[in-house]
Amino acid sequence: MPLFEHLLKIKEEKGAGFFLLLDPDRVDGKRLAEMAEAAAMCGVDAILAGSSFVGCHDFDARMADLKKASTLPVILFPGNSRQISRHVDGLLFLSLISGRNPTYLIEEQVRGASLIKSYGLEPIPTAYMLIESGTVTSVQFISNTQPIPRDKTDLAKAHALAAKYLGMKMVYLEAGSGATIPVPEEMITGVADYCGLPVIVGGGIRRPEEAASRVAAGASFIVIGTRLEYENDTRYMRELADAIHCSEKTTI
Fold this sequence. Notes:
The chain is of the alpha/beta class. The chain has helices spanning 3-14, 29-41, 59-69, 102-119, 138-143, 153-165, 185-195, 208-217, 226-230, 234-246, and strands at residues 17-22, 46-49, 74-76, 90-96, 122-130, 170-174, 199-202, 221-224. It has a single domain (3-246), classed as FMN-linked oxidoreductases (TIM Barrel), CATH 3.20.20. 44% of the residues lie in helices and 17% in strands. It has an 8-stranded parallel barrel, surrounded by 8 helices. The radius of gyration is 16 Å and the shape is globular.
């Protein structure tokens, strides 16, 4: 089954999916493998692997070890065209549509396209949108772009609809790693209802109830990584999975 269809099946069967984000810049190879093994037992649905800035010299080898250790789909979440590995199941083919920096709108995509084709990876065209989160995040600094203000839901909706008309398959609302506050529920609901695409939400989500409220607001997938990278807390991971999978969508 193609990766994108598999993700849609997860959403259909569980109501929403739980993505564990692993950053090879912050987690060494041994820890990546340990987390990949634990994730499958704790209700995680897929692993996202990537970083705003990859400083590790052995990225490809780490992806190979991660895939070897994991029974879950491993999906690249690349910050640039250098973060492409053949040792994964596919990747989010991101375009940073909330910014106006051509490097992350199209240039890095052009640089990586031939490599993706040669590796036979499945790309999932994804509209990547930075949302104001109370702090300057790594991706905001590296991309040199401004996030969409958290109280400007209409702006987020317009960007998401444009992405749909451009043929993108998913929308990713990103508060950013280490965000002080997560993406607001009102924006998630507005975007999900307006564009009709699956919505991924990440950044600043630390408690199970925060994850559940984002699913209730309309998120199809929740991304959590920072705390789990540093704490070997399988109980917490299970609590997050239960909250994400048991949430009920808000009806309007």
